[in-house]
Design goal:
Elements: H1 2-22, E1 30-36, E2 39-46, E3 50-55, H2 69-74, E4 77-82, H3 100-113, E5 119-124, H4 127-137, E6 142-148, H5 157-173, H6 178-186, H7 189-194, H8 196-208, H9 211-222, H10 228-231, E7 238-243, H11 251-260, E8 265-269, H12 276-279, H13 281-292
Parallel strand pairs: 3-4, 3-5, 5-6, 6-7, 7-8
Antiparallel strand pairs: 1-2, 2-4
Helix pairs in contact: 3-4, 5-9, 6-8
Organism: Deinococcus radiopugnans ATCC 19172
Signal peptide: 1-22
Protein name: Alpha/beta hydrolase
Length: 296
């Protein structure tokens, strides 16, 4: 039933997206579905100016950036977010639920369909390995790089086991079973205790993912390439954002990336864990705008 609903929604929004794009980019919010590599990819485009493509982590959606769109768009950026296939409102074909390489191809194809030759491209958590893959494939598409609570290292034995367990739990008990597992790391204890609305918002996003998406993303994270050698090849301006209380990929991983990407900048976000871009959005937005203003 859920897949049938998503397919119907995909068709509806595909028709709507054509109408939204027909008027051109006038600074208004555009939202719809795009047929991409056999999948239906949901996107939101808000604002006008320098494009900024933001890619979410596992097992979230583009709504992770709901607290960033206005601030960035109002400052003169065209903020584009997508739901990776199998997440949010996007629909994956049965024969390709997703991989780091596929997510990267999807993102580049979305840029093509939205007439975005190049952009500041950023990724949170799983979005980071996707960004690295995009850079290895098409470095000319980058005006700058934004790495948010992510990692360049391949998964170690312990992490591989964690992702395997996450996939099995999703298969056995459904996407909703991952909410408790993930939110204890996404948000600090203070936020979980005092801001139930934040907990519900992110929890609802996790519940929206498909089982196939949960399994594919877990496998993608478990089998991700070692991107440490890629760091030295990055020549575009790069900002690294890191929640001070991130326990998934703690600050030392961000510091290592900063040391290996020439000229990169690291900003630690206080009072925030793995979903720092959402939990302390004002601080994250200031850091992004301060950095991005030097690229214009």
């Amino acid at each position: 039933m859920k897949q049938a609903h998503k397919s119907k929604l995909a068709l509806t929004l595909t028709l709507l997206s054509g109408a939204a794009l027909a008027g051109g980019n006038d600074g208004m919010r555009q939202e719809g579905m795009l047929a991409v590599n056999g999948a239906q990819i949901h996107y939101v485009s808000q604002g006008s100016g320098t494009p900024m493509l933001l890619l979410h982590g596992y097992p979230l959606s583009g709504e992770l950036f709901s607290r960033n769109r206005d601030a960035l768009a109002n400052a003169g950026y065209r903020v584009i977010t997508i739901d990776h296939r199998g997440y949010g409102q996007s629909v994956a074909p049965a024969d390709d639920a997703g991989s780091i390489q596929t997510y990267a191809k999807d993102a580049l194809a979305v840029m093509d369909q939205l007439n975005v030759p190049s952009a500041i491209i950023g990724g949170m958590s799983m979005g980071g390995p996707i960004v690295f893959e995009m850079y290895r494939t098409a470095p000319e598409r980058f005006k700058g790089m934004l790495l948010i609570d992510t990692i360049a290292n391949p998964a170690n034995v312990v992490e591989k086991a964690l992702w395997g367990g996450m996939a099995q739990k999703a298969v056995t008990y459904g996407p909703q079973s991952l909410v408790g597992e993930l939110l204890k790391d996404m948000l600090t204890g203070v936020t979980r205790l005092n801001k139930p609305g934040d907990v519900k918002f992110l929890g609802d996003i996790v519940r929206q993912a498909s089982v196939a998406g949960d399994v594919a993303g877990a496998k993608a994270l478990s089998e991700r390439l070692d991107s440490l050698p890629t760091l030295a090849s990055i020549t575009v301006p790069t900002l690294i954002l890191e929640g001070v209380e991130d326990t998934v990929y703690p600050p030392p991983f961000a510091m290592k990336m900063q040391q290996n990407i020439a000229g990169s900048k690291l900003v630690l976000i206080p009072g925030a864990a793995h979903a720092a871009i959402y939990e302390n959005a004002p601080a994250a937005n200031r850091a992004i705008l301060d950095w991005a203003s030097t690229l214009k």
